[in-house]
Predict the 3D structure of the following.
Amino acid sequence: MSLSITALNCATLPVALVDLRAIDLDDHVVVRWTTGSETGSELFTIERSADGSYFTDVGTVAAAGHSSSTREYEFVDRAPLQGTSYYRLRERDLDGSTTYSDVVAVGRIQDATITASTMDHAVWYVHGAEPGAHWSLHDARGSLVLEGTITDEAGSPIHVEGSADHLNLLLVKSSSRVFSLKLPPGTAGERTMVTASAN
């Protein structure tokens, strides 16, 4: 079920929430929060959104109930969204009442992978880069040969007819990272895969 609820300030929570953060760790996102004290708390529900407005539940963590000392919690989202995601907590008390935390955001970008047919090197396909990312192809001297914009995360084609023999490097610039991919010489009849590393 999707929810569209404005998050309340952390200070209004029945628990004293002193920290809430979402951390990108390769193939998953860790949501961590710390409470200074809790009175009558029962359950934390972790909610996620792609746009910061419509949230869905992605997991739950049992609350301490009653605590006057600092407690740390963690939830691992093992199927996170690409791009920017928004997380918040919905805290339920023992009496059934609920309150919401503020929203935290985290950005995730997949490693880009290029696959190409080396029959003629006429088309390269970029997989895993976010739509809207800028790509540019360069020759061995670093001069710009072609450039454009990624249109499809699942496989964005780059047509390089007439320029294939001069290409040496592909740069993919997302909103937060730059991926450098060195293009190897082609071997007739084979396919080549190049995996990016973020700079």
In short: The chain has a mean pLDDT of 76.
